[in-house]
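Sanity check record (used in CI):
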Amino acid sequence: MITGDDDEKWLAAAIAAVKQNAFYMQRAIDSNNLKDALKFSAQMLSELRTSKLSPHKYYELYMRVSDELRSLEFFFKEETGRGCSIAELYELVQHAGNILPRLYLLCTIGSVYIKSNEITATDILKDLVEMCRAVQHPLRGLFLRSYLAQVTRDKLPSIGSELEGEADAHMDALEFVLQNFTEMNKLWVRMQHQGPNREKEKREKERNELRDLVGKNLHVLSQLEGVDLGIYRDTVLPRILEQVVNCKDELAQCYLMDCIIQVFPDDFHLQTLDVLLGACPQLQPSVDIKMVLSGLMERLSNYAASSVEALPNFLQVDAFSKLNYAIGKVVEAQVDLPASGSVSLYLFLLKFTLHVHSDRLHYVDQVLGSCVSQLSATGKLCDDKASKQIVAFLSAPLEKYNDVVTILKLTNYPRVMEYLDHETNKAMAIIIIQSILKNKTHIATADEVDALFELIKGLIKDFDGTTDSEVDEEDFQEEQNSVARLVHMLYNDDPEEMAKIISRVRKHILTGGPKRLPLTIPPLVFSALKLIRRLRGGDGNPFGDDTSATPKRILQLLNETVEVLSDVSASELALRLYLQCAQAANDCELEAVASEFFTKSYLLYEEEISDSKAQVTALRLIIGTLQRMRVFNVENRDTLTHKATGYSARLLKKPDQCRAVYECAHLFWADECENLKDGERVVLCLKRAQRIADAVQQMANASRGTSSTGSVALYVELLNKYLYFLEKGNPQVTGDIIQSLAELIRSETKKVESGAGSFISSTLRYMEFQRQQQDGGMSEKYQNIKMEWFE
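Expected output for Vacuolar protein sorting-associated protein 35:
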């Protein structure tokens, strides 16, 4: 085994020998001594016969020698100028003792011979390329042929060059390069077998460093004048691919396929696509075919983007179908290709399609369908890498079109999503929703809603045996909030179609389970209420009574929907939504429907809401909603009002009772409705609230022996309620009542330093301000209240 130190030592010795012989060769050149120049140049070239150096070090030695040979080539040119026969020189160098120095000298003099025009370039090139077969050592032969390619590169008889020669001379040049390429590739491939198996990985690394020596031949081919599409299709490409396929070497196949794609013109690739793609299934299974095909499709995509005139050519040669077929054949041929590999191939095809044929949606759907066909044997993907590839695959059309409605037209899109595991499916669903929200995409038909919710069903319901309890709570909340925001993006100006949308959304959302429903039903309800307001604002229902888009039918649907919440322990939310629906029924003058909603609200309050704080909140909502209801007749309103006041009196804490009872006073007074102004019952409510506040005061005195600051605050709140109804014109609220309550507040505040002092001061300042108004209206109402105690 060669060590690094040995390698350096041998290289140093070889370079020293090269320098010494190069010195003597140069001295012979300077003295025009041809014999010595050939002698020392042959000795210098003999250093390249070594088998001790690694390819990397051999490359360094080769570069040193090739630099010195330039001066020898120049010397040969001068010799021919001084009358020396170039043909004789060509024969003379063939007397060198060793084959390797002899062939290097032959290549050097051969390049001069071609330039002399004493013989056709074709004859010399054929002679040189054939004689180089004599060196079959992989490393030495590879560098020899590299030197041949180097010295003849600018001397090929291509069209337009000074060495053009006969009409078919460019074909001879082509044949020379192809033959040299073939032999170099064979030598390069054989390098992998030079040495023990334990060093194979090292040899492959060294081979990889030398790949450009072989690839330069393809670059020369691409630059040859006269190599048109016909020659490329009929001669160049078949010969190159034959060598690529037959070498059966992973490294060579991968590199050379990439070289072909990179060095030859785009239109050549497009016109010979079937030939190039036909070689792909014949490559070794270990070849990274993804890199090859992705490079090809990227090159073609850039070609299409840079030239509008090229687009018809893509359709003419049916590039998409050929690529799709070729990828299918590759996947079929490489039975060990993992799912991530096949998905990656179709991802590259999809990106190509979106770049070149974005207007042909059926092409995009066809790629999705091909991917589904390949995944059908795998079932759900458990490979994280494959799942990420699927997400990228599905995200590509979203990013291109920025329109989920377009995606919904792809019939195979949901079929691809079926292969994702539950978590990845949810992640993809969130990406879809984010696209809708970002681009403000409006889903406008019921069929689109069905298709969309089929895509995001991973967020809508559980499947694959998973449950909500397995999900992080914060993540779950964020997911369902995304669904809630999505509901508001579903809209159609046509009320009938909008009603269908709401019905379809309801069908999907109700499958969500007890943990999701409290988060997803509210946006559905408010979307439906928005539709009801639109219908109420129009000139009646334009569709007649037989359609679903009537306020009554929508409210009946909401009644059934909200009822589900009470079954999943979300009673407080259900009560709030019932009251919202009751308000909508009131606006639409549907008394029976509004009564039904209030009845259910009361049942929930009585049977399901037991927490004292929740009861207070719920009761305030009930009172506030009932106060705005105008649709009820006297009997129904009295019944509902009586129940609300009854609930108020039964609250657990006395201060809560007091506040709820004085809030009930609003139920007997409505500014805009004269028949809902019962001043006497307003005062009765306020007096009842004051009695409860008195009871709070008495309990405080009994337990602590002093006045309660909390009861004083209740008195001040009551005073403000009296002032409110005084200003609203309630004749039953008199100055004496207010004066009496104010005196009570003053007496209580003398007993203890009240925490409600600022509240009291603000109220009294307001009263004094109203007394001093000059408009005459409000001031008169406050004149009957004596303010001497204010000081």
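The first helix runs from residue 4 to 30. If this sentence no longer matches the regenerated tokens, the check is flagged for review.
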